[in-house]
Amino acid sequence: MEEIIIALIICVGLPWVILHYITKWKTASTITSDDESLLDELYHLAKRLDERMDTVERLVATDDPGFRPARLMHDREADNAPLRELDRLIAEKKGTAK
């Protein structure tokens, strides 16, 4: 009787445990649709905050002509090219390529 139980554990239990954790590992390493929507929401929030910072910097620059922002400059081609590429990839991923 003990031999049958040990044989069942080896033939059924062990492969089941291995396959179970392989499945858990594969599903944990992928981005879910919830994760993707959260990233999209965070991306749009970052763009809005960047626009607000541009506005604040323009207002401060009008009051103080010597003001030089320490962050990326507004509408500089070197900064905008990667952002356009990111926008294109996001639109392509959603199927709304421009």
Question: How would you describe this structure in keywords?
Answer:
single chain; 98 residues; mainly alpha; 2 domains; Phageshock_PspB; transmembrane helix
How many domain regions? 2
- Tally of DSSP helical segments: 3
Distance between the termini: 69 Å
Report the biggest beta sheet as strand number plus sense, adding barrel if it closes: none
Poorly predicted segments: none
Q: What do the pLDDT scores average to?
A: 82
Backbone structural class: mainly alpha
Question: How much helicity do the residues have?
Answer: over 70%
Q: Looking at the structure, what is the overall shape?
A: rod-shaped
Question: Count the strands?
Answer: 0
Strand content: under 5%
Order of helices and strands: HHH
| Rg, nearest Å | 26 Å
Oligomer: single chain
Keywords: Membrane, Transmembrane, Transmembrane helix
Protein name: Envelope stress response membrane protein PspB
Organism: Tsuneonella aeria
InterPro entries: Phageshock_PspB
